[in-house]
Amino acid sequence: MEMKRPEHVILTSHSNHVYRETTPIHWGAKTAKERGPIIATHSEHRNAIGTHAGSYTVYRALSVASGQFPRNHRPDLANTTATVELGPYDSWFDNNIVSLDPWGARITESYDDLLKQNYNIQPSIAVTSAHLQIPEISKSIEEGKIKVDGKVVVQKNDIKVTKAAIEPVWYLPGIAKRLELEEGVLRKILFQETGGMFPELVTRPDLKVLLPPIGSTTAYIFGNPEDLANPEVELTCRVHDECNGSDVFGSDICTCRPYLMHGIEEAVKTAQKGGVGLIVYFRKEGRALGEVTKYLVYNARKRQEGGDSASTYFYRTECVAGVQDARFQELMPDALLWLGIKKIHNLMSMSDMKYNAITRSGIEVVNRVDIPQHLVPLDAQVEIEAKKAAGYYTSGDVKDGETLDNVKGRNLHD
Ligand SMILES: [Zn+2]
């Protein structure tokens, strides 16, 4: 395909030159119409900074650059609508949600008139249904811990699930407020720390919405998704941050996959009892510090004098990364609020940061469920004991002093 590209670059810094035809965004409004569409595509209608597809936007740029992807492509949205309609819920209004677009799955029904007028408005949320086949869960089914009920677990190993993919859509004044920052300071630092990726952050204070180039979030729902919003229906939930090493490849240095699988098993059981189960999976690899930093920390932990120890677990991360954690759990509850959740009966997480963020968002948590000790890999004892000592929830003992020092991990070359 031959490329026809303009040779000049149009900067979007001056409001009198671009985005003249835009529609306003009234974030937190009670209807999609009143709120107005988020338009983050190439067009004169654009009213948001950034682009769709999070970090994959860079791959799309490569496709465009190499001539494979027509820059003016408009998605054909026929038959793409959600398999279940969720909301609108009260939690969608009044800026309770600031890091995703609650109307993001309802583009065709909400903005049909504008789509017909050639506005390039794209969904930022998609909802579909699927079957899961997971070795650990299949084993639990074979052992009779989970029954084939023909509703949640169908056939031999198949678990029915509704899943939603959610792109980040940030309402910058709301994000600033959540983090207790001035919006201007937030915008300036976002601009500086991304190497100046989005000049509009500093030149266009009138544009309040940013689609940042970061990973998305996926919700896996077992049982009836509409029941998530009913506090009378038992809800078992795990909010899980990505750990590729453990989740996908079975690395034994942490508890991520075992806890995730335990979360899925309990979520399925709750759904089978007439409740609802939920796993929300956030792409925040290595405490949102990235996998390179994570592996550097592993080496530093295991090579330090005295070997890998629970008592120096957080210290080693901070030495390498400059911070213990960069996940900003303050934004995490938005996914729960989008699903209309008011009450979590069983929270499958020991993290005090997650618990505090969820309860601060107004969601009630009844029980906190820690990972059963027999699911913790031997080498992950360092992580779990360090976390318990640092204030993570546990129904068991908390080690300190010498007993914490004595929780040791494997050597690097064993
Ligand atoms: Zn992990």
UniProtKB/TrEMBL annotation:
Domain (GTP cyclohydrolase II): residue spans on this chain: 219-369
PANTHER family tied to this protein: PTHR47259, URACIL-REGULATED PROTEIN 1 (PTHR47259:SF2)
Residues in GTP cyclohydrolase N-terminal domain copies: 8-193
Pfam families in UniProt: GTP_CH_N, GTP_cyclohydro2
MF term (GO), any: hydrolase activity
Keywords in alphabetical order: Hydrolase
GO process terms (BP): riboflavin biosynthetic process
Keyword Nucleotide-binding appears in the UniProt entry: no
InterPro entries attached to this UniProt entry: GTP_CH_N, GTP_cyclohydro_II, RibA-like_sf
Organism: Pseudobacteriovorax antillogorgiicola
Keyword Hydrolase tagged: yes
Matching SUPFAM superfamilies: RibA-like
Name the record gives this protein: GTP cyclohydrolase II
